[in-house]
Amino acid sequence: MKTVAIIDYGMGNLHSVSKAVEHVAPDTRVLVTDNADLIRSADRVIFPGVGAIRDCMAEIRRLGVDELVKEVSRDRPLLGVCVGMQALMSHSEENGGVDCIDVFPAHVRFFGHKLTENGERLKVPHMGWNQVQQVQDHPMWHKIADDERFYFVHSYYAEAEDNVDIAGRTRYGVDVAAAVARGNIFAVQFHPEKSADAGLQLLKNFVNWAGK
Predict the structure, then answer these.
(1) I need a labelling partner for 87 at 20 to 30 A (CA). Which of 10, 79, 101, 201 fits?
(2) What is the pLDDT of residue 195?
(3) In whole angstroms, how far apart are CA 178 and each of 34, 61, 169, 201?
């Protein structure tokens, strides 16, 4: 039986993610845990996150999750979700600037207070469904149509321009990295557990993905 560990560092929407994984992979053991040994022994790892990045990074570093994420992703698939994806970047400009885990050499930017598209003012945070253009041909997109819609809730975004690891792009006033991929890591800005059939398919793909 495969085991999926969802890292609990006190800053994630853990219940809905775990229930979604259990739904798409009923033969998989899903653990929500802060136990490093259990996380190390899992076949797959999910790195979630919600809230302010400074608070998230403070707990990530206090608990050693930053080094644990780097360690486990060397030899098994890891999925970052929402702020979990942002924490994998080099730096976020939220809260005046926060250094992140630096797995992906990209920066996290604020949408701004005067975000517009075609002359229309856009609300921040970005909250709702957006199409995601698949930039990489990646196993995590299996059975998911290009330009499928996923559900987003965020005020900050990983930059898409010159992002060599971008796997999916969306647009909300600016080009946004909706997904990034490198080695055994695939990370998404959107919430797959809230993204209906497409999000559930992505979680199913994660359980079945063997990694690099």
Answers:
(1) 201
(2) 97
(3) 27, 25, 5, 16
